[in-house]
Amino acid sequence: MSENKDPHVAQHGTSVEGVKFVYDFTEGNKDLKDLLGGKGANLAEMTNLGLPVPPGFTITTEACKVYLESGEEPAALRDEVSAHLAALEEKMGKKLGQADNPLLVSVRSGAKFSMPGMMDTVLNIGLSDKSVQGLAEQAGDDRFAWDSYRRLIQMFGKTVLGVDGELFEDALEAAKAAKKVTVDTELEAADLKKLVTKFKKIVKTEAGRDFPQDPREQMDLAIKAVFDSWNGDRAKLYRRQERIPHDLGTAVNVCSMVFGNLGPDSGTGVAFTRDPASGHQGVYGDYLQNAQGEDVVAGIRNTVPLAELERIDKKSYDQLMQIMETLENHYKDLCDIEFTIERGQLWMLQTRVGKRTAGAAFRIATQLVDQGLIDEAEALTRVNGAQLAQLMFPRFDESAKVEQVGRGIAASPGAAVGKAVFDSYTAVKWSRSGEKVILIRRETNPDDLDGMIAAEGILTSRGGKTSHAAVVARGMGKTCVCGAEELEVDTKRRRMTVPGGHVVEEGDLISIDGSSGKVYLGEVPVVPSPVVEYFEGRMHPGADDADELVEAVHRMMAFADRKRRLRVRANADNAEDALRARRFGAQGIGLCRTEHMFLGDRRELVERLILADTEAEREESLKALLPLQKQDFVELFEAMDGLPVTIRLLDPPLHEFLPDITELSVRVALAESRQEPHENELRLLQAVHRLHEQNPMLGLRGVRLGLVIPGLFTMQVRAIAEAAAERRAAKGDPRAEIMIPLVGTVQELEIVREEADKVIAEVQEATGTELKLAIGTMIELPRAALTAGQIAEAAEFFSFGTNDLTQTVWGFSRDDVEASFFTAYLEKGIFGVSPFETIDKDGVGSLVKSAVRAGRETRPDLKLGVCGEHGGDPESVHFFHEVGLDYVSCSPFRIPVARLEAGRAAVTSTGSDHR
Fold first, then answer.
1. What phi and psi values does residue 333 have, to the nearest 5 degrees?
2. Which residue, of 186, 309, 396, 870, has the greatest Cβ tally within 10 A?
3. Strand 589-593 relative to strand 644-648: parallel, antiparallel, unpaired?
4. What SS3 state is found at 864?
């Protein structure tokens, strides 16, 4: 079939004109990841660069999609595979699985986004009882041939036929025990031949069929298994965790085999062009002599550092260093490389832009700018807010008294403390019960993914920086220490023995430092991150490692601030939080929740207001509250001098300021039984009953309070106005904005605004001070969003309250549903992520878009912001940039994240700025 650069999906069981399902490695390039998957696109790119890549071909993601939708492969696929296989056989001068000179191939998955270890791979396809003899003669090595055959049966049995992998592992361990050896390389050809017989019996017993001897059947079943693995439990779980779309499908790469298990002049390894843990330049990676690739990733045998390859095979080492430099300059990024050496011949099996730790991401981005490989805008796309948030986590206090019991490889940084657990099931179970856990394994495998997600950190006694545990942990931002060989992990007895004989039992507290690789008994205290100290103004860029990271963060934040359009404000209710927010880069306050000012020692005054039976009593209570409110605002305006401060008038139901109904009932009952005075408690109880609502979040709150409790909102407006006047008299620059909550109709806002304007005018006249106080509203009800054009007639600004808007759009009570059924919704794929964490673009987002458009049609200069939790969520910040908001507001510690993401949104945006 002719090649089509813009293929369309074939219909079930049919062939569509112009559709091409199979591409030779010589046909693709790195920009075809949607079609060829990351692995296939990069194999094609390396082939185009003239690098030594074993010949092969890629079956596209479109073929996978047809299979997943219909249950059958496209009708044309078999013929296309046959044609490409024939071309591969001609190129290699041998046929798949032929008896005397067999061609062997690998069948590997390769989705658009890297999903390490989550989907399936089968090596050595083409081996059979007949061709194993031919492979032995071809290689001149019986042991190698039988070792390759047992690997095929083991991988094929587990991956394609669904046989429990532990059965093969147990048989391998038994063979080593019988031979009195500790590693599989010490097994001889005769031992491996017996093991093949044992493995075939396991397949027959467990799968109910013989291991297939037809090489084409092996290949076809393996291809189908890779397609099926896209919807495997661990792959789906990983995609949910990493927010990878479920409809992409995977490509399948069929590649001629090269062998790293041909003896000491052969081997396999993984290399990084820079350290994925720190970002530093140098020689990083692992190498394993006389091994196939899966041995390195699985951590079954401990590797040697990549630098050792120079001593083992200098020719291959020098060639690899040249290739690594070529790839990094070509991709302009850290590259993760898999390679095999077959009897002194270097082969490249894969490259991809490598996963890295948060610190490494920031360091590498600035390094590449300094090297002239990328510009500032591109650098911003190489880091993200989640990574910055991770860098702000605390670290261990190195000056504390600690008991170090081991040290491994620092695979993924962080300071993790938790109870020791030795299997994934327990990690999940304990985590759901609120326990913090450290998952301890000899080495992890893809089946451990749910436990790795649940754990605070991962500790393994085997493997290196390229093991499964290390790669997956880095991708998830989890603390990980690998290859702590001095620790003896016994998963069956659920214990770990440390040097000196001390035993860590399941449930014992341990601490692991993913930055140093150190393992400690007990809980080690933590200290603030140097990045937080930098934002607080207590640390400045310098020369040591921590300061080097701070320098990188400082530069990336400067890039972001230069690029971003969105301003970033803080949610802050007092001067202390406001000052902290300002140090973190806040450009004002987007939400001051005045209800927080009514708590503590002021609760009694609020109770008196609620209990007031007469207008005089109510006015007396408001009069007592006024100077306290005014002082709150004076302090806030002073802390945020020259920057806008948006103050939300009282929002929550009044019952929240009264004692709990059960507690109060008990107090009244006890007082009555003891015949003690309880008039005040009884009045409180009557008020609690009077104010009780079945659904208080949809009851008497927000603007409704201001309309039914005379003087409440006007007291708050007067306090704001008088505080602003006082600050102006002190030569300050207060920029207050008054926000009316929970408005559903313009008439509510008009009534409150008319009263507010009157109060402001009175204060101006009394103080002789001109006050410019903007009045606006929160858009947090669907009706408000739908009638935004009308509401904008009375509002100078909107602030979207996306917490309440999400609740009212979805009909969710956040306090109840997150604990009751959100876990099930996430597991079933109904949510990719909680709509309270990242804005629901299709539902809530549509209302925001329409409200922005309608509001600005009415009032072109309408100021627009958001003050819900979404204001600090990285993905949501991009949405708010796209729809044209002026600012986002979030908690002080999320401000740097929002600043960074606002910069990233500006350089990646596909839309206009709506201004």
1. -170, 170
2. 870
3. parallel
4. strand
- Residues with Cβ within 8 Å of 554's Cβ and at least 6 positions away in sequence, in order, are 534, 541
Catalytic choice (84, 468, 655, 878): 468
Q: Which helix (H) or strand (E) holds 73?
A: none
Please give the Cα distance from 511 to 314 (Å, whole number). 40
User: Residue 130: in which H helix or E strand, if any?
Assistant: none
* Spatial distance between the Cα atoms of 462 and 579, rounded to a whole number of angstroms: 47
Q: What is the spatial distance between Cα 725 and Cα 764, in angstroms, rounded to a whole number? A: 8
Burial 84-109 (b: 16+ CB within 10 A, else e): bbeebeeebebbbbeeeebbbbbbbb
Model confidence at 689: pLDDT above 90: no
Amino acid identity of residue 829, one-letter, is G
Predicted TM-score of the model (pTM):
0.80
How far apart (Å, rounded) are the C-alpha atoms in residues 644 and 586? Answer: 10
At 854, list the tokens.
């309608």
Provide the Cα torsion 293, 298, 303, 305; round to 10°: 80
Residue 589 contacts residue 582 (beta carbons within 8 Å): no
Torsion angle of alpha carbons 581, 582, 587, 593, nearest 10°?
40
Per annotation, catalytic residue among 335, 867, 870, 890: 867
Q: How far is CA 632 from CA 573, 576, 619, 772, in A?
A: 9, 11, 20, 19
Active site residue 870: no
What is the Cα–Cα distance from 741 to 707, expressed in whole angstroms?
A: 12
Name the phi and psi angles at 649, rounded to 5: -70, 165
List pLDDT tens digits, range 814-868. 767 766 787 788 777 788 788 888 999 999 999 999 999 999 999 999 999 999 7
Q: Please indicate whether residue 867 is annotated as part of the active site.
A: yes
> Looking at residues 486-505, what average pLDDT do you find?
90
The full length of the chain comes to 915
pLDDT digits over 391-428, tens only?
988 788 878 888 899 998 888 878 899 999 999 999 99
Q: How far apart are CA 695 and CA 813, in angstroms?
A: 9
* DSSP assignment string, 383-442: --HHHHHHHTS-EE-TTS--EEEEE-EEEE--EEEEEEE-SHHHHHHHHHTT--EEEEES
Q: What are the φ and ψ backbone dihedral angles of 99, each rounded to 5 degrees?
A: -65, -40
Question: Which pairing describes strands 304-305 and 22-24: parallel, antiparallel, or unpaired?
Answer: unpaired
Q: Which parts of 859-890 fold into alpha helices (H)?
A: 874-883
Q: CA 744 to CA 752: how far, in whole Å?
A: 13
Element (H, E) at 287: strand 281-289
Query: In whole angstroms, how far apart are CA 827 and each of 143, 236, 241, 244, 824?
Result: 46, 9, 10, 14, 5
DSSP per-residue string spanning 305-366? EGGGHHHH-HHHHHHHHHHHHHHHHHHTS-EEEEEEEETTEEEEEEEEEPP--HHHHHHHHH
Enumerate the β-bridge partners of residue 479.
457
Find tokens 């922005």 and name the residue.
Answer: 852
CA dihedral defined by 181, 184, 185, 188, rounded to 10 degrees? 70
Task: Give whole-number Cα distances, 396 to 168, 401, 434, in Å.
Answer: 41, 11, 22
Neighbouring-strand partners of residue 122: 107
Beta bridge partners of 890: 570
Task: Give the tokens for residue 180.
Answer: 């009195």
Pick 232 or 455 by higher pLDDT.
Answer: 455
HSE of 201, CA atoms in CB hemisphere, 13 A = 7
Residue with tokens 């990084």: 272
Rg (CA), the chain: 33
Q: Which two tokens stand for residue 566?
A: 């969105």
Q: Which residue has the tokens 């009244």?
A: 668
Instruction: Return the structure tokens found at 354.
Output: 């490598």
Place of tokens 């298994």: 225
Beta carbons within 10 angstroms of residue 546's beta carbon: 18
Q: What is the DSSP string of 656-725?
A: GGS--HHHHHHHHHHHHHTT---HHHHHHHHHHHHH--SSGGGSS-THHHHHHSTTHHHHHHHHHHHHHH
Token pair of 294, please?
């899966």
